[in-house]
From TrEMBL:
<comment type="similarity">
    <text>Belongs to the pyrimidine 5'-nucleotidase family.</text>
</comment>
<dbReference type="InterPro" id="IPR006434">
    <property type="entry name" value="Pyrimidine_nucleotidase_eu"/>
</dbReference>
<dbReference type="GO" id="GO:0000166">
    <property type="term" value="F:nucleotide binding"/>
</dbReference>
<keyword id="KW-0479">Metal-binding</keyword>
<dbReference type="GO" id="GO:0000287">
    <property type="term" value="F:magnesium ion binding"/>
</dbReference>
<dbReference type="GO" id="GO:0005737">
    <property type="term" value="C:cytoplasm"/>
</dbReference>
<dbReference type="Pfam" id="PF05822">
    <property type="entry name" value="UMPH-1"/>
</dbReference>
<dbReference type="InterPro" id="IPR036412">
    <property type="entry name" value="HAD-like_sf"/>
</dbReference>
<protein>
    <recommendedName>
        <fullName>5'-nucleotidase</fullName>
        <ecNumber>3.1.3.5</ecNumber>
    </recommendedName>
</protein>
<keyword id="KW-0546">Nucleotide metabolism</keyword>
<keyword id="KW-0378">Hydrolase</keyword>
<keyword id="KW-0547">Nucleotide-binding</keyword>
<dbReference type="InterPro" id="IPR023214">
    <property type="entry name" value="HAD_sf"/>
</dbReference>
<keyword id="KW-0460">Magnesium</keyword>
<dbReference type="GO" id="GO:0008253">
    <property type="term" value="F:5'-nucleotidase activity"/>
</dbReference>
<dbReference type="GO" id="GO:0009117">
    <property type="term" value="P:nucleotide metabolic process"/>
</dbReference>
Length: 344
């Protein structure tokens, strides 16, 4: 297993330099599998294997890039998951917080109640013995109860602001530059999440220090009263197992909250006309984010954050490009710039 992985890396490195000359100045990765299942045998010397990026079928990827390039940027949209895709998996040496996990509602009793729900439902979410239908019901139950506790516990917008300020959460390097590149070309970015839209917007505001008129959040959205107290949630609950069903219908412009009033925003209909997709996710299930779209060409990029040894072959089959080692977005930007270039 270990030798195979090392061999794969070598092959990919060779393929990469042959097919992706733009990746040749690529920083050798910090690679250590010591915390994963293979233990010490898999420990690799620092900088020995460049493994940040893996492409299973370079020729197919080239073909897709060319198809997207020929169709032009007006046909392209980006669909991205939020937690551990746009944000880093490791932050300050520990597991980064998720948009849901970071929330402290300023009421210890209710924070504890939500934690109890997490401890009960989280193992069920990943249980191999529970069928999808039953699991979906359990997730609806979990999200419903959690949202109920947020209302009942008197969550305020100020608590969200404070929670984000205190959170151990960070964007991958290059996320801001990626959004900016896409904004300059009027390419929409839809961020799909089973978390909370209001928190994601606050994270964008506090961590990126700017807003983007091309970015929309598709997630659970809160309704606050004039005093800034949460009173309800808009629409149907989006949980981990149904987030793909709602996708395009629930897209709402992030600029509403961020004070942008200028510039045309694509409505959902025109988003559906953008038939080429760049999809970014960190779970195989994230591939379903483009299900509501009859896309012509899709390039999928997967961020494999943990259990790498066991999941690598599966991710390489599922995604056109796989990133490991909490990779920054620079290579994504390079690939996108090729999709948007006017000549070869
Ligand atoms: Mg995620």
């Amino acid at each position: 297993m270990c030798h195979r992985l090392q061999l794969q890396s070598t092959i990919v490195t060779k393929l990469r330099s042959r097919h992706f000359p733009f990746l040749s100045r690529y920083t050798p990765a910090r690679v250590s599998f010591s915390s994963f299942s293979c233990g010490r045998d898999l420990q690799m010397e620092e900088g020995k294997v460049a493994l940040d990026l893996l492409v299973a079928d370079p020729a197919l990827l080239e073909k897709k890039i060319e198809a997207i390039r020929l169709a032009g940027p007006q046909k392209l949209q980006v669909i991205a998951d939020f937690d551990a895709t746009l944000t880093k998996f490791w932050v300050n040496g520990t597991r980064g917080q998720s948009s849901h996990g970071l929330l402290q509602q300023g009421n210890p009793e209710y924070d504890a109640k939500r934690q109890q729900l997490y401890e009960y439902y989280h193992p069920l979410e990943f249980s191999p013995t529970i069928g999808l239908e039953e699991k979906t019901k359990l997730m609806e139950e979990w999200w419903g109860k959690t949202h109920g506790l947020l209302v009942e516990g008197g969550l305020t917008y100020e608590s969200i602001r404070q929670s984000v300020a205190n959170a151990n959460i960070a964007f991958r390097e290059g996320v801001s530059e990626l959004f900016e590149f896409l904004e300059e070309r009027d390419i929409p970015v839809l961020i799909f999440s089973a978390g909370l839209a209001d928190i994601i917007e606050e994270v964008l505001r506090q961590k990126l220090h700017r807003s983007f008129k091309n970015v929309r959040i598709v997630s659970n959205r809160m309704v606050f009263d004039d005093g800034g107290h949460l009173v309800s949630f808009k629409g149907k609950v989006i949980h981990s197992l149904n987030k793909n069903e709602h996708a395009l219908d629930m897209a709402a412009p992030v600029h509403e909250r961020l004070g942008y009033v200028d510039g045309p925003i694509d409505d959902n209909a025109s988003i559906k006309k953008r038939t080429n997709v760049l999809l970014l996710g960190d779970h195989i299930g994230d591939l379903g984010m483009s299900d509501g779209l009859n896309y012509e060409t899709r390039i999928s990029m997967g961020f494999l954050n943990h259990n790498i040894e066991n999941s690598l072959s599966c991710y390489r089959e599922a995604f056109d490009v796989v990133f490991v080692n909490d990779a920054p977005m620079w290579e994504v930007i390079k690939l996108v710039s090729r999709m948007c270039s006017s000549g070869r």
